[in-house]
Records
---
Amino acid sequence: MGGSAKSRGAERTGVRGARPAAERDSGGAAGLTRKQRLELYYWMRLTRSLEERLVNLYRQTRVVGGLFHSLGQEADAVGSAYALQRGDILSPLIRNLGSMLVKGATPVEILKQYMARGDSPTRGRELNIHFGDTERGFIGQISPLGDMVPVMAGVTLSFKMRGEARVGLVYVGDGATSTGAFHEGINFAAVQRCPLVVVIENNGYAYSTPTVKQSLVKQFADKAIGYGIPGETADGNDVVATYEATKRAVDRARRGEGTSIVELMTFRRKGHAEHDNQSYVPPGELERWAAENDPIDRYVARLSSEGVPTDELQAIDARIQREIDEATDAAEASGVPQPLDALTGIYADPPSERPLWFREGGAAVVQSSERPSSWGTFDAPAKGAD
Ligand SMILES: Cc1ncc(C[n+]2csc(CCOP(=O)(O)OP(=O)(O)O)c2C)c(N)n1
Ligand SMILES: [Mg+2]
């Protein structure tokens, strides 16, 4: 099958012009039940409200690291992750909080992680959402752009070799598509026919670099042609269209038809992180996207037109507020990390080691007790030896 983009998604306001919501939204309910359609609303609203809470905490200096925000991209994260099944594996990025929530990450974990609490998933050693849980089906993110594509090629090759009907999904930004790792990983996955979906989140910018300075391709899905795989562009601000396009690629992968690209057209309405004031975005662009192409507003309009009463959505909003308040209280009540936590999970039994060995000029623990001879490494020279 050729790689040319099948459907053109929401085009960028001010760059390619936006169409009215009624025309843009995909038709039908995509085979989703009423309960599922409300779940999509719940996950998008939870993502937005949780990030709003995180911004408040950041401004109060209670979030100690950088804060990465997915404002305006909730539909692309939630709709794509929703197309996966239990047992499938997802590799998220900093703007995929919504995807992680769909896969079972909890608000309290996210808050503890950003607030660097001692009982957060990484015990305060990492201050964003770079944590994973293979049981729940999301693996830990890493910062180097594109590098998770070859990793997920390997993960999905293992599914294929074991004869498991499982699928992997890896997110990359428009910027990450310019890396060597993206190219090597997707080419390998394609030729090995790995059950992998590569979702390119085309949000207009890679930090301050606009997509027009990133690549000359018209649509990033067109890159699929170069790898001999299918590519499809969908409206990433339409949660149902996103779900449908990703589901098509997921189903193909599960049927043994290999790797595909799904490009989701969206827009990053916040800076790269909270500190970035987006002075490089043309005036009016952010406001235009907020007014004309907000994924939650569009979905609320759609649900209303399908007969979902407003008070039902308001009840979901109230439930989310309660959940976030409770999670915030729990995160604030939990303690800060203890110094020895820095070693937990790294050495076999940290408490048995002298805590300040590294300040006393002693050899690393690994030199004395935990380096198996099978590693074939050499002993460090004894102190004072020639
Ligand atoms: C290989 C590599 N180069 C540069 C960086 C620094 N960096 C981190 S995020 C980012 C921009 C990413 O843009 P994009 O891939 O479009 O994702 P988005 O932030 O828009 O979701 C850059 C340049 C990095 N982490 N890794
Ligand atoms: Mg980008």
---
Amino acid sequence: MEIRELTKEIRDRSIEYAKPKDLDNLSASWYQEDLLYSGKGKTIFLILPTPGCSWALGPSGGCTMCSYISDCYLKPIETSKIIELFEMELGKWDFAEDYKNGEKIAIKLFASGSFLNPEELPKEARNYILQRLADLDEISEIVVESRPEYVKKEIIDEIFEIIGDKLFEISIGLETSNEETRLNKINKGFNNKSFERAIDTIKQSKESYDIKSKAYIFVKPILLSESEAIEEAIETASYCESIGVDRVSCCPATIHRGTLIERLWRRGSYNPPWIWSTVEVINRIRENVNIPALMDTSGFGSRRGPYNCKKCNKELKHKIIDSNFDQSQIEHDCNCKSEWIAEVKFSNLNRSKTQTKHLPLY
Ligand code: SF4
Ligand SMILES: [Zn+2]
């Protein structure tokens, strides 16, 4: 409970001090190579302007590691403005040319919360966007994100009435299969039953539609040691496969501003995972499960992100990105590995949640 109160307090303060946002600068997009269900292709990543995640704006204060809210408008946005910004971002990329050259194209729509929640993205805006994408032969896969409570059969029916036979993936931030961690360390506010219900709804819809599910796995929540975080992420992927999730994507912690994770990090009681830990996680997940498993490398090698040493940060990041395409095992060596091994081996022994860097353990 204390975690929730702290999160709420920190969230309120960061909203209070947030600078007013210029609506025209709240959308963004980029276009790059990606692993699609149909194989290697290209994806348009498009951030839609929204008032912000309802969970973060509500009495819970939101999740302990997430600051998406600070990039949001915090007030309702006219549907016409959302459409205008969506069109502007879509118009930036020459995917039609790539399609002509045989490339497969997907689009990932980020609402900084739940695409399926009409309070975050009005239904009219959602329908317009989906219709626009339905009309584009070039785009074969549409990916959105949502909390599980918004995954409902009626909404899925509405979506497929518009998009027809395109592939539609709903990504859910499960973060971990450990309920104690999810409720009390991440402050996520839903249990495994709620997630399983959402996955079941998607599974049942497969009879009629080309629908898929993806789970995000958060690597190293607060108040877990390095080795606990590794084991939880690996167990979570197996849990996802066992209940019928179509693929998993691991998101190692980075320190977002105005979050509880940042406060602990500033006080020396938290560090993002080692890059070695992310390698261990993804290699073992790929050994254990038969669904595609991706590792996000955002923030790798930066002060606020996963870190090894100056010598191997970059090289390992590129190896991980490459391995996402062919789902291969990552092999690498560097002098800093012994330091990581000591951390993983001993952080549970001394009950420390901080790095053992300065202890003579290796
Ligand atoms: S992680 Fe998702 S549910 Fe949690 S606060 Fe951020 S956007 Fe909202
Ligand atoms: Zn190194």
